[in-house]
Design brief:
By secondary structure, the protein is α+β, with helices and mostly antiparallel strands. Helix content is 45%, strand content 16%.
């Protein structure tokens, strides 16, 4: 380098870099690959995937989110797609497979647009307009549902369960999901004068509807308890194991002597002092127990420990005690029996005691003992007891039941249904095709691309059912063109059918969320025009130097393509 010249910094050659069109194509291929993995998991004739996790466990499922959660990918676009199904699962609980399939198809359709040299910003602008149009279509073809009608609610939940592993026990699972939702939903009638709208409904499934999976027994033995169940036994073998209409106290403090906060050294010079010291500890515990016994309870739950001395005192008072209960379980018990959790025994009041439980009993199931608090008068928390042949089957039933409960919860907040079986997607597709003819300029192409992408759901349903996709889709398109929006695909036969008569309706909130998430994801990936993978290569993969190559971040060229 000559003197006086500015030094030139060359970008590190080791990171792998792709720019412009190449980066966009790479992202599209990666997204399409992810979509193809779970395309066969859509609809009632869905295939199962068997995945082995690194620990050697087996996952057997057709739930899109559960599959993608277990798959390890290195490509950033593929990771982005996997996040979609997680968002969908957290937000509405269902449609995790659909959202990936639609997003993958939208990107695949964008590929041809990019090859025609249409700028990504133009495509994104058209996608936004197409999304608005799609949401309008969903609103127009949705029908209201009466959330208090069991029949309507059960048929809706059945739609969600219809594509899952538990379809054979769909009636039972629908009843379990609906019963659990009805139990935990709480309506607070706030006064409109204080600015709070009247009749706020909260449905907290995560906190108050616990699923307990116990291997053994038949799946038909699964039930929703009118109360709570814990994996606990009594602390002393002589305590009562069955109490009708018990008075229950819930504590958040130990029934043991108080230990010092820091390390304490005590020097004792006489034997009598040691005895005084022990007597003082016993006195503390005795006072706590006597304070509790003033309220004549039958049953005590505490989140902390109970000393042997406290157990003997409680046993003399004919009180059953259960210790080290989980905080979440204690909260559920409080909701179910109408009790208040108390932090100090000195603070106990009569109003804190739970009296709404009809029966306390302990049963042995399998190898373990379980505590049941059932026959509660107005339980606002519940336990769903699942029985089944093996852990893998129970885990799959649990996932399916969680989806069903999420769907039932969504309808409580947004009581509208959209036709299922690909009918909604086909209605959107037909409307966008018509709209594309009126759009001026280059934006009509992306409009048509979204319309074509929407057909992927009915097409996949036909393919998974083993039908002739071209013939059936042509028939379905003709029905929708003549304004019959409720016609869709019967996922069992692969034929066209009227969803009104077939009774297949899905929650509109799931459809709306699916479209929003899929379109947003496609927009984000289209905006990317540069991928830099600055992952260090392993030494055994060709040492530290040298650019290009596979390394950890394998590019989509190495991924399986169609």
């Amino acid at each position: 380098m000559q003197a006086g010249q500015t030094p030139v910094f060359v970008m590190n050659a080791a990171p792998e870099r792709q720019t412009g069109r190449k980066a966009q194509i790479a992202n599209i291929v990666a997204a399409k690959t992810v979509a193809d993995v779970i395309r066969s998991c859509l609809g009632p004739k869905a295939m199962l995937k068997m995945l082995l996790d690194p620990m050697g466990g087996i996952l057997l499922t057709n739930d899109g989110n559960a599959i993608l959660r277990e798959i390890e990918v290195t490509h950033p676009a593929a990771k982005n797609m996997i996040e979609l199904s997680r968002t969908q699962d957290e937000e509405v609980g269902d449609g995790t497979t659909s959202v990936i399939v639609i997003a993958g198809e939208l990107l695949a359709q964008s590929h041809t647009l990019l090859e025609r040299n249409i700028h990504p910003v133009v495509i994104i602008s058209a996608f936004n307009k197409a999304l608005q149009e799609s949401l309008d279509v969903i609103q127009q073809i949705s029908i209201p549902i009466d959330t208090s009608s069991d029949e309507e609610m059960l048929s809706l939940i059945k739609t969600s369960i219809g594509t899952k592993f538990v379809i054979r026990w769909s009636d039972l699972m629908c009843k379990l999901a609906l019963q659990a939702i009805r139990t935990v939903s709480v309506s607070e009638s706030g006064s409109s004068t204080s600015g709070i709208p009247t009749g706020i409904t909260t449905v907290d499934i995560k906190r108050y509807a616990r699923v307990e999976k116990i291997p053994g027994g038949a799946i038909e033995e699964s039930k929703v308890l009118d109360g709570v169940m814990l994996n606990k036994d009594v602390t002393h073998p002589n305590m009562r194991r069955r109490i009708a209409n018990p008075r229950i106290i819930l504590l958040d403090c130990p029934l043991e002597y108080k230990k010092g906060e820091s390390q304490t050294y005590i020097e004792i010079s006489k034997e009598s002092q040691w005895k005084d010291f022990q007597d003082e500890e016993e006195k503390q515990v005795r006072e706590m127990c006597e304070r509790i016994m003033e309220f004549k309870p039958d049953l005590i739950f505490t989140e902390k420990g109970i000393s042997d001395y406290a157990q003997s005192i409680l046993l003399q008072g004919n009180i059953t005690a259960i210790r080290r209960v989980r905080k979440s379980d204690n909260n559920r018990i409080a909701r179910a029996i109408g009790a208040t959790i108390v932090n100090r025994t000195e603070d106990l009041r009569e109003s804190d005691i739970g009296t709404k439980c009809g029966l306390f009993h302990i049963e042995k199931m399998g190898d373990e003992y379980f505590t049941f608090l059932t026959k509660c008068t107005t339980p606002k928390a519940c336990t769903i007891l699942l029985r089944g042949p093996s852990k893998d089957v129970l885990n799959e039933i649990d996932r399916n039941l969680a989806d069903a409960m999420s769907v039932a919860r969504n309808v409580v907040f947004n009581p509208f249904l959209a036709p299922g079986g690909g009918a909604t997607e086909m209605a959107i597709s037909v409307r966008l095709q018509q709209r594309a003819k009126t759009v001026q300029g280059i934006e009509s192409w992306p409009f048509k691309a979204v319309a074509d992408a929407m057909e992927v759901i009915p097409r996949t349903l036909v393919q998974n059912a083993g039908g002739n996709a071209i013939r059936v889709l042509t028939e379905l398109r003709a029905k929708h063109a003549s304004g019959e929006h409720s016609w869709g695909i019967n996922g069992d036969t692969g034929k066209v059918e009227d969803m009104k008569k077939y009774g297949l309706y899905e929650s509109a909130s799931v459809k709306i969320q699916t479209l929003k998430t899929a379109v947003e994801a496609a927009k984000v990936l289209l905006r990317v025009d540069d991928i830099v993978q600055a992952t260090r290569k392993e030494k055994d993969q060709g040492g530290g130097g040298g650019g290009g190559g596979g390394g950890e971040g394998a590019m989509p060229e190495d991924m399986p393509q169609d």
